[in-house]
Each structure stands twice: as C-alpha cells, then as structure tokens.
Amino acid sequence: MSKLFPALYDIAMKPLEKTRFEKVRANLVRKAQGRVLEIGFGTGANFPYYRDVERVDAIEPNPEMSKHAAKRIKKAHVPIYTYEAEAEELPFEKNSFDTIVATLVFCTIPYPIKALEEIKRASKPGGKVLFFEHVKVDQEAIGKTQEVLTPVWKKLCDGCHLDRDTLELVKRSGLKVEKVTSYYGGLFLTIECRNPE
C-alpha cells in the first residue's frame, strides 16, 4: 500500500487542489517567514507557495511520497531541503525554525502528541506554527460515521485517522492558538499558532 497511496494521492487531490484547497494552502503557506520546517511534505503540494522565506527544511517519512515531489522541488521559488524523517523525532536542534507548517498530515502521524512536543522544541520562541487539517466534525452523526470508517480508512490511506481532533491536541500541546478558520462545515480547519516558549 505504501507505493500505491502516493501514486493515487495527487490524482485524488487534483480536483480539490484546483478549487478552494489551493487557495487555503496558498494563503496559509504564504504566512511563513524566515527559516521554515514543513512536516510531512508528501508530494510537495505546498512547495510552489513559499515566497518570502530563507529556506524550507521539509520532512517526509514515506520515501515513495518524496519521489513524487521532485518536480515541485525543482520549480520552487525558494531553497528546499528534504529529509526522510518522522515528526515524532525531528532531526533538528532546539529553537531552529521561525515557522513550522503542517498541512493535511496530522491525521496520519501515529503519535501526534509527541509530534507536537517536537514541533514546540524545534520552533523558536514566538515562532509561527501553521496547520491545515481535516478533523473530527463537531456533529454527532458525522463524528460517529468518521469513527466507524477510520479503521478501514487507515489501512487504505497511509494511516489517516478521519476522527482525529487535531485542534484539541494543538490546544493541549501548549501552543498558543491565535486563529482558527473552518471550511466545509468544520471538516477542515486552518489553525494559526505561536510557540510561547
């Protein structure tokens, strides 16, 4: 499945990326400044949107996903350096990044609390942390459906949890949530934070 999912990811996302997703990604990623870390860059969908940054260090644990990002890396407007690494164990020093970006990735991270701890550690004090994630919907019927579908969905979609409450995890992490914007009835959120440490 690890080889099949990356090949299908761009195909499945293409209709969404050409609609509102593309605008959401672009608007969020363009808020990045300084030295940037991207968590789980996947096929590199965010790479075209980085502009006024020094460089982007980007991690991705799935080497098959990374292969699909090569063209976007070449076309990027800023230097992009990629690493095969997991969010729960970032290969960077403390206080390294001005901005950390994670889009549509927290659903797949096996230990999201550990990943958030690592994000706080790697972020500079006052650094931005920007998320765009799908989350468990705050409507009982839909939320229950997400819970029921998640075990099968995880197997098909590289570990994706349909029912993860990422906003609540971010709040509990100690990151200071400054702005939350909801899309598609609360199924997708952008979460803009600061690292207070």
UniProtKB/TrEMBL annotation:
Q: What PANTHER family does the record point to?
A: METHYLTRANSFERASE LIKE 7A, METHYLTRANSFERASE LIKE 7B
| Molecular function as annotated in GO | S-adenosylmethionine-dependent methyltransferase activity
Q: Which residues form the Methyltransferase type domain?
A: 37-131
Q: Which UniProt keywords apply?
A: Methyltransferase, Transferase
Full protein name: Methyltransferase type 11
| Gene source species | Planococcus halocryophilus
Record-linked Gene3D superfamilies: Vaccinia Virus protein VP39
Q: Which GO terms describe its biological process?
A: methylation
